[in-house]
Amino acid sequence: MPPPVLWRASAYGCAEGAGQGRMTTGASTTVDPTRFQNLFPGLSQAEALATLRKPLEALEDVSDRYLAAAHLVNFPDERTIAALMTCAADDHPAQAQRIARRKAVESLARLGASQALPVIQACLNSEDVYLVENAVWALAELQAQPEAVTDTLLQLLKDGRQNRRVVAQTAARLGIQEAIAPLEALRREEDPLLVTAATAALARLTGNKDGLAALEDHLLHPDVTVRRAVIQDLMDAQAFDALAAIAAAPVSPVFRLRGVRHLADQQHRQGDAQAGVLLPLVDRILLDDPAAVTLVHRYDAPPSLDFLVQELYGTDFGRVYLAVATLMAAANADTLAALTRSFADRGWNDYGAHYHMIKLFGWLGNPQALPLVREALANRRPQFQKSRPAAALTLARLDPRHAETALQDAACEGSFWELRYAALMGLEQLQLPAPSATFADSDWLVALRAEAMASNGPAHG
Helix or strand or coil: residue 107? Predict the structure, then answer.
């Protein structure tokens, strides 16, 4: 891969050189959809069903039906599927129903409700392009019969109003060979999101992966939307040679970790997973030292401390990593004070800044932040789950004498594999053995990490 172009991130304004790109909606992002699917744990199935059936004029808020359609994914039974199918078939033009219909299609796909395919296929003819996008994505999730949807998908590939990126992905997932010619045409478009999706789809349909190396260059694109999206394209194309480039891409660790994990799982199923290759990449992402990330921005003037702290709230992690690296390099007595003030003001409730501050507390090495770190390790709010593995590693760094019990507990917690894996890293950092339960972890990658630690000493009994 050629060296990256450094796009200037002004210390006084927005990044220069970054294009707007085309933001795709939820159906085609690379965020784990299950992480946030139960945001209303107090809402019962009966209440959600009643809300979904409530007359439009009786709704208290325009989003009520949408929220009910989203929440019903947590109740996979015939009543839920029937209600969602009714909602997905309702073409009432009111905004409350339009957004609920889109979400109902998505929820049906997440539930694996193949009986809903006729209803979903009917949505492909809608004038609502967002509904069409969700329906196209749902076809692939539910493995629709290619012959039933080929003609429609080929038409959509030529329709510039549609999200043709998602159409390309679905055509490839369904193995529609007739899409090869229109996909070749998409590769000549100016929109990089179309180019990369078409390239990945062609690799999947033809088996020819010669064009995938060019996709890696887009991991350093000035537009963060493109950088995120191309990770999905590399996943779709099974681009195993891109693992290291994905791990170093200047995007959120959530996107990088999902990309690496997806490809690692593919290798594991094929019997090709190599601990010596995969574990260092996962370790690198979870440690998330900006020195291990390929930066694509630079400052055109020395930034102030206040500016750098404010940058932690940004959504372009390429810019955020530049700020983190600068804060680490220029740290002084004022740095921790500025971070803790900002944390108390609003960082505690901004999951992006929260994550970066928890990491920075560890890099700065001052144990004054320990109460915030321990609180982050125990924080179970869904949006803040990214901070828990970061807190485990920061705890090991800031409190090596007293971190063992908390890390052992985290290594055996059943919530999500990233936390257990990071807790093992923290224990290894302290030269402590892996708990014996982790050798039989339900997640093969966590168990592999525990086995890699075994040479450091015996497991706990």
Answer: helix
Whole-model pTM?
0.85
Structural contact between residues 358 and 373, judged by C-beta atoms closer than 8 angstroms: yes
Q: How many domains does the chain have?
A: 2
* H or E segment to which residue 298 belongs: strand 297-298
Q: Is the pLDDT of residue 3 over 70?
A: no
| CB contact at 8 A, 453 and 430 | no
Q: Is residue 234, in this structure, part of any structural domain at all?
A: no
Q: Is the pLDDT of residue 62 over 70?
A: yes
Going by the DSSP 8-state scheme, the letter that residue 188 receives in this structure is: T
pLDDT tens, residue by residue, 377-436: 999 998 899 999 999 999 999 999 999 999 999 999 877 999 999 999 999 999 999 999
* pLDDT number for residue 460: 45
Q: Where are the alpha helices (DSSP H) in 145-274?
A: 146-157, 164-173, 180-186, 192-206, 212-217, 224-236, 243-247, 253-270
| pLDDT tens by residue, 232-289 | 999 999 999 999 999 999 999 999 999 999 999 999 999 999 999 999 999 999 999 9
Residue at 228 is within a domain: no
The residues, any chain, with a CB within 8 Å of residue 286's CB and separated by 6 or more, are: 253, 257, 389, 390, 393, 418, 421, 422, 425
Residue 371 lies in a domain: yes
Burial 27-52 (b: 16+ CB within 10 A, else e): bbebeeeeeeeeeeeebebeebbebb
CATH classification of the domain holding 366 = 1.25.10.10
267, 273 Cβ separation under 8 angstroms = yes
Q: How far is CA 421 from the centre of its chain?
A: 18
Q: Which of 142, 162, 190 is the last residue of a domain?
A: 142
Q: Classify residue 443: in a domain, yes or no.
A: yes
Cα 166–chain centre separation: 17
pLDDT for 110 beyond 70? yes
Q: Report the alpha-carbon distance of residue 199 to residue 209 in Å, rounded.
A: 9
Which of 76, 70, 68, 71 minimizes the C-alpha distance to 51?
68
Extract the tokens encoding 8. Answer: 């200037």
Domain extent for 109? 23-142
- Tokens 């705890």 correspond to 395
Last residue of a domain, one of 142, 169, 204: 142
d(CA 271, CA 102): 39
In sequence order, which residues have a C-beta less than 8 Å from that of residue 454 and are 6 or more positions away? 433, 434, 439
Question: Which tokens go with 21?
Answer: 């790109």
